[in-house]
Prior knowledge:
This protein has helices spanning about 5-10, 15-30, 35-100. It is mainly alpha-helical. It starts with a helix and ends in a 10-residue tail after the last helix.
Amino acid sequence: MKTGKEANKVKLITPFVMLLGTAIISIHTYLQRFAMGDWLVIVLGSAVLFLILGASLEKMITYFMRINQEKEDAERAAEEAEMAEMEAEAGEELDIDAEGGDTDPREFRQ
């Protein structure tokens, strides 16, 4: 997974979802003039609910970021292997041409 700022942003998903959801619920229940005891139970229950939702959302995003990072790493490794193979083939051609060759080794330089 990526480090630095992106990892820190992902860690903030849970508290942001919890605080935003709970704030909306608490304002709505306050404006509906619920009794204080009922209001506290509803706000506490919504805080727990949004905590669970935020944590599951954070885990899903982390999972998908890890999958994308693994794909990028695999593609990068395949490209490096292909480049190494191409360089090895170019080196073999230069060796063959240098032994009895007709061609100038400068032709293969990029």
